[in-house]
Design goal:
Rossmann fold, Dehydroquinate synthase-like, alpha domain, seven-stranded mixed sheet, two-stranded antiparallel ribbon, 18% strand, binds nicotinamide-adenine-dinucleotide, binds glycine
């Protein structure tokens, strides 16, 4: 087992990465303060892993709540199922919520933990690659609103993150690819050698080769932990983690939550950020081709929806609501080079229009 640390002073916490960790009681025991544990999962993950997770909390008063599965249920209405379960079982302020599932369960459970009785502890047990490399670390929690993705939420850090890589054995290939989008992101924003390593190892990663998967998770979690430790509340460098997300979130919301996976939106969205970066004279055509090739190797979409499915004006309206927008100006994470991201609202509007028009038409 490998242990990384998210260094946040007295709120620091470990990320445990290894095989067969899900039922390890000794691992999680120090991070449960009271006697009550509420495990939150969904209709897909619970039949696979709830029994193992319950073993990890043997000896505690363990209750469970099973949510419907899907991004379309990541909303305030479903969130209430968690509060209702906690209240029904008379959970007190010392209780611990446990997120057992992908990023949707992690974000919702974390937000419920942030709000229940003004804040209780929670533990992340991520079971998708995306959640293991990104969403379970860093304390961003929340739900979607019909008018914008992840618009209702809170920063609330977990007590620990338990990554059992064996859970990936049951994960669908499309979901694995979606997770690889966020892995590739770390290389693009701050780690050119990692990007080059991924170019070499993508075929093995797509086949879930265990040693490569573990290395990709460790390197991704280390990148994320470093960024979160230096900018927990996103006043600076943390925004780089949103490469491709301004375009991607608009695709997710515009196409109806659940139709495009988050990682798929990030992939097609990143290609648009890359295209705009090339139009601005920072990336070369060769860089763009390299980045397109790696997403394609990961079986991810590089093109956003067509103009008829997502017209430019709808696209722009959705992006205008992005959390990075300032004074009505859409701000993007762009690349100076592979491994070097920056945030800007200072770009010619016609280059954004050109990106929205040309990339879908010509790629
Ligand atoms: P998800 O949670 O919807 O999981 C994907 C699918 O895989 C679901 O159907 C789920 O039930 C299923 N599943 C989960 N684990 C499984 C397993 N081991 N075996 C078989 N099936 C399994 O999607 P996701 O990609 O994990 O997460 C996407 C969400 O994460 C989005 O809502 C996104 O906004 C959020 N996110 C948050 C952050 C953050 O920092 N908080 C970062 C990135 C993404
Ligand atoms: N996934 C973006 C962040 O954690 O900041």
């Amino acid at each position: 087992m490998k242990t990384l640390t998210v260094d946040l002073g007295d709120r620091s916490y470990p990320i445990f990465i290894g095989q067969g960790l899900l039922n390890q009681a000794e691992l999680v025991k120090p991070y449960v303060k009271g006697s009550q544990v509420l495990i939150v999962s969904n209709t897909t993950v619970a039949p696979l892993y709830m029994a193992q997770a319950k073993q990890a909390f043997a000896g505690f008063d363990v209750q469970e709540v099973i949510l419907p599965d899907g991004e379309e249920y990541k909303n305030l209405e479903t969130l209430d199922m968690i509060f209702a379960a906690a209240l029904k079982h008379r959970f007190d302020r010392k209780c611990t919520f446990v997120a057992l599932g992908g990023g949707v369960i992690g974000d919702m459970t974390g937000f419920a933990a942030a709000a229940y009785q003004r804040g209780v502890n929670f533990i992340q047990m991520p079971t998708t690659l995306l959640a293991q490399v990104d969403s379970s670390v860093g304390g961003k929690t929340g739900v979607n609103h019909p008018l914008g993705k992840n618009m209702i939420g809170a920063f609330h850090q977990p007590q620990c993150v338990v990554i059992d890589t064996l859970t990936l054995n049951t994960l669908a290939d499309r979901e694995l690819s979606a997770g690889l989008a966020e892995v590739i992101k770390y290389g693009l924003i701050q780690d050119a050698p990692f990007f080059a390593w991924l170019e070499q190892n993508l075929p093995g990663l797509v086949k879930k080769q265990p040693d490569l998967i573990v290395e990709a998770i460790e390197r991704s979690c280390q990148c994320k932990a470093d960024v979160v430790a230096s900018d927990e509340k996103e006043s600076g460098v943390r925004a780089h983690l949103n490469l491709g997300h301004t375009f991607g979130h608009a695709i997710e919301a515009g196409m109806g939550y659940g139709n495009w996976l988050h990682g798929e939106g990030v992939s097609a969205g990143t290609m648009q950020a890359v295209y705009l970066s090339r139009l601005l004279g920072d990336l070369t055509q060769a860089d763009q081709d390299r980045i397109q090739a790696i997403f394609e190797q990961a079986n991810l979409p590089v093109l956003p929806p067509s103009q008829s499915a997502l017209p430019n004006q709808t696209y722009l309206d959705l992006m205008a609501g992005d959390k990075k927008s300032q004074a009505g100006k859409i701000r993007f994470v762009l690349l100076k080079a592979i491994g070097q991201a920056y945030v800007t609202g200072d770009y010619p509007a016609e280059l954004l229009t050109q990106t929205l028009n040309e990339w879908r038409a010509t790629a």
